[in-house]
Amino acid sequence: MISPDIREFLKVLVAEGALALLIIYGMQIRHELRQKMWITGVALVLVAAVAVGAYFEFGWKRYGTFMNNHDFYHYYTGTKYAPEIGYYNQYAASLLADHEQNKVFDTKSSVRNLETHGYTPTREIFANQDAIKGRFTPARWEEFKKDILYFQKRVPQAKWQQMLRDKGYNGTPVWSMVTGTFTNSIRTSNDPGMSALIAADPIILAIMFLFIWWAFGPWTALFAIAFFGTNFVTDFVHIKGALFRMDWIACIVISMCLVHKKCFGLAGAVLAYAAAARIFPAVFLFGMGSLACWDCLATRKINRDYLRFFATFFITATLLTGLSYLYYGPALWHEFIVKIGVHNKDISTTRVGFKYIFLWPFESFGDKVRGFEAHQTAWWCCQGAMLFITFFAARKLKPYQALGLGFVPAFFLTAPTFYYYILLIAPLLVFLPEPKRASNVVGASLFFITSIAGYGLHMVYELNFTLCFLLSSMYGIICLYMVGVNLMPEKLIGFAKAKLPRPSGMVKHFAGIAYVALLVGLFLAYRGTPEKKEVPTPIPTEAAPTPVDPAAKTRALRESMGKSIAAPRDDAPSITLALVGDIMLSRGVSRDLEARKLDYTYPFLATAPLLQTADIAFGNLECPVSGRGEKLDKNYTFNAAPEAVEGLTFAGFDVLSLANNHTLDYGLVALDDTIRILSENEIVGIGISEKDGPQEPAILERNGIRVGFLAYVDPNSPFGDAKEFLPFEKGPVKALEASLTRDIAALNEKVDIVVVSIHWGIEYMDDPDEAQIALGQFAIDQGADIVAGHHPHVQQEPTWYKDGLIIYSMGNFVFDQRSRPKTLLSRLYTVTLTKSGPTFAQYRPLELVIKDWQPRPTGPQYIPLPKPGK
User: Fold this and answer.
1) What distances in angstroms separate CA 296 from CA 267, 286, 290, 487, 824, one per listed residue?
2) Local structure of residue 758 (DSSP, 8 states)
């Protein structure tokens, strides 16, 4: 099977071939070199054929099938059971159906709340199951269970856990009504029928390209196929092999074709379906409306063609909306409006549009949210100005081009997820059909260039905010070109109607040599792209930090900060304990530090004063600090260089948990190095034992108060522990009730305060699951005073339980995760301790800055968590 890198390389090859043929074709058309066009035509047919293969990933299949199980589940059940589950209960009903059959989903976890985009603990869903199931008839519930079982069996268990935490089904009730006629007729047990549903989107695309052929000719159709198959956003499997996900873009393109063929009434009706099914395609009316206005001003009368177009659009849209309203009732439309409103308010790392160019200057995720809210006036001024300019640009266009110009307001007014930019095929048709103009060839070339650039950028950037910002910038350039080339006087853009130069022999030979050299260079770049290094090159240090002597930590620095909220007065001696979450100094953290020639103290510069003022500082070290060892065969492996300890000592850490799912990523060699390196720098690593025997606790004394630390991994948390560690004689201690009881009882005899660290919970969940809650309370019941949790990579709210404090998850302290905005937010907790236990707690909100990987306080002061009764 072809590897992902080779597939991307082949797509770039096809896109570059199509780009070269487009330029040659433009020259041949302009200079009427008809006798040699057959060669170009044959080459274009071959390129288009390979582009079709590129769209189908050259035969690669995810989970052994072309069906996109993730997307198909959402849109099949979302349309078939729209009356029963609406827009809020898709995941809740799926969980209940799962629980009555295979019980694959972790019932102690949470699922996405599709009304709020938060998370709902499964216990709440089970408590409300009668109301959820009551919307089904017994026969429909049994059918629903069969459908859930069908999709559940087609994906790995871990994938099924993810599917119920996505963002649900987002088609309009009109789309549900139309597609529901198919999903209600074809059961999942009907294999030929399901195959037909899978084939629906390719058939829709084939019809779209046949319309392009009919309206604009074979050359335009073949170039459009070549672009669509190699468009960078189609490199991902999000909507390939899905259910009727291509209908809206096909309708936009077909509407352009019908307008070109003077079928204005039918064109309006077709575009109306796209708008009723997906809402935002209605923006494409803007260009046509602008042209109609200019025509009316020029002729002093209303053009009947435009009148037919808009009349059929509004009549069709009204009829479709009204039918869906009658079919489902008002409740479904209300739920859709609420859900899509919440969905659109999200600031995501994988969306594309002018909004994400506007947000770029705001550095952190929190700044982006606050900055967008604070600069609404500037935002709307930009929107208004661009719409005004686009209105003027439409006056020179043909009707089908004006319809395609709707891409500009779509880019500026909406910000859909990146894969919706399959819609680039529509503005491409503004340029492709008339290649005699140099400006049209340049315009069409921009689309192929952005795809080629997208693949190149993907070699450097993951699919995240940075890559989507760059895509937004490139698509913004296309928008500016579309407007500019039609807005400026032709004297100022002399190439608008300029003749393309006749290709000389030397030019053709030079172009051929350059093209081959480009392909060879790109191939070597792909072949030479190194794997992500887990063991970084030692980072040059300009000035070694002065190690912090724990005994030298003073309260003077805390007082100089002036930010802490005073704890309740207590005459008993007290100390302050600081706690933070996951610390990972490998992978992207080390790469970005090295690229900027920074040392490992840099990530801790903003928080070191907060940690150093505490009497004891604790965190979870989620990577070995070694640079040696043999990498295990697991999905994610980390190994920081020995120099990383400089940052940990500079920050002032006293105790670090090693009980997590990455501590043995490079075997015992790296683990032993880590323990030794930490010890040499007066940091105690805890949570490791042989064969789950008693661990050696860390015991520290400050101001006459003895504090003991224990650390564990929860073997019942998904990925909290690592099965790859089983062969080793030594490893993280498992949080079994017997072990907790034994270790806490033994430690309580030696210390005044017991702190238990646990690596647990469900990644990216905002709320602790039932297992976390039960285990945390059990630890407190056995005698622990504080339970400090980590592993979910996001924050989970703490709670006081009896006389103890349970912090379920502190979030990422230093970590290079960026695909989910919530992973950039964390907290630094401080707890006031006396010999009788914790008396007061507070936290400082932090936010990681991408590329800096430096957590920085986001507020001017600590937020108190006073103990009940104090």
Assistant:
1) 20, 15, 10, 19, 53
2) E
What are the DSSP E strand ranges found in 85-140? 110-112, 119-121
Tokens of 457: 């950028």
Q: b/e string for 150-165 if b means 16 or more Cβ within 10 A?
A: bbbebbeeeebbebbb
Q: Is 562 exposed, middle or buried (0-12, 13-18, 19+ CB in 10 A)?
A: exposed
Spell out the residues 6+ positions from residue 537 whose beta carbon is closer than 8 angstroms to its own: 594, 641
Q: Region 697-705: what's the mean pLDDT? A: 94
The confidence band for 250, taking pLDDT boundaries of 50, 70 and 90, is very high
Residues 325, 231: Cα–Cα separation, whole Å = 37
Please name the residue that has the structure tokens 């699922």.
111
CA atoms within 13 A on the CB side of 139: 0
H or E stretch covering 689: strand 688-690
End-to-end CA distance of the chain: 65
SS3 content of the chain, % helix, strand, coil (to 5): 55, 15, 35
H or E element in which residue 132 lies: helix 129-133
Residue 534 phi, psi dihedral angles, 5° rounding: -95, -20
In the structure encoding, which two tokens stand for residue 536, read together? Answer: 């970084």
Tell which residue, 840, 845, 870, has the closest CA to residue 565. 840
Q: What does each C-alpha distance from 696 to 61, 352, 498 come to in angstroms? A: 49, 51, 80
CB-CB neighbours of 405 under 10 Å: 28
Q: Are 239 and 282 in contact (CB under 8 A)?
A: no
What's the CA gap between 777 and 768, in Å, rounded?
12
For residue 459, the Cα-to-chain-centroid distance in whole angstroms is 17
Cα–Cα distance between 840 and 827 in angstroms, integer?
16
Q: Distance (Å, rounded) from C-alpha 289 to C-alpha 309?
A: 10
Q: In the structure encoding, which two tokens stand for residue 34, read together?
A: 């008809």
Kindly report the length of the chain. Answer: 870
Q: Which residue has the tokens 């900060």?
A: 561
Q: Which helix (H) or strand (E) holds 577?
A: strand 575-583
CB atoms within 10 A of CB 673: 19
Q: Establish how many alpha carbons lie within 13 A of residue 97's alpha carbon, considering only the half-sphere containing its beta carbon.
A: 28
> Phi, psi (5° rounding) for residue 292?
-60, -40
Count of other CB atoms within 10 angstroms of residue 811: 26
Instruction: Say if residues 133 and 83 touch (Cβ distance below 8 Å).
Output: no
Residue 519 in tokens: 């392909």
Which amino acid, 71? Answer: D
Cα–Cα distances (Å) from 486 to 331, 473, 651, in that order, read 45, 20, 58
Q: Record the tokens describing residue 413, joined without a space.
A: 């007014």
The total of other beta-carbon atoms located within 10 Å of residue 484's CB is 15
What is the structure's pLDDT at 420?
Answer: 92
CA angle, residues 227, 232, 233, in degrees to nearest 5: 110
Rounded Cα distance, 227 and 845, in Å? 46
Q: Which residues contact 863 (CB under 8 A, 6 or more apart)?
A: 565, 842, 843, 844, 845
> Cα–Cα distances in Å, from 103 out to 125, 149, 630?
15, 10, 37
Tens-digit pLDDT profile for residues 160-214: 877 887 888 889 999 999 999 999 999 999 999 999 999 999 999 999 999 999 9
Percent of the chain with pLDDT over 90: 56
The CA-atom distances, in angstroms, between 153 and each of 62, 99, 486 are 14, 14, 54
Instruction: Report pLDDT for 534.
Output: 32
The distance from CA 765 to its chain's CA centroid, rounded to whole angstroms, is: 15
Q: Are 732 and 720 in contact (CB under 8 A)?
A: no
What secondary structure letter does DSSP report for 752? S
- Average per-residue pLDDT for the chain: 85
Residue 828, Cβ neighbours under 10 Å: how many?
25
Closest CA to 758 of 738, 735, 780, 741: 735
Q: Please report which helix (H) or strand (E) contains residue 832, including its range.
A: strand 825-834
Band of pLDDT at residue 571, cut at 50, 70 and 90: low
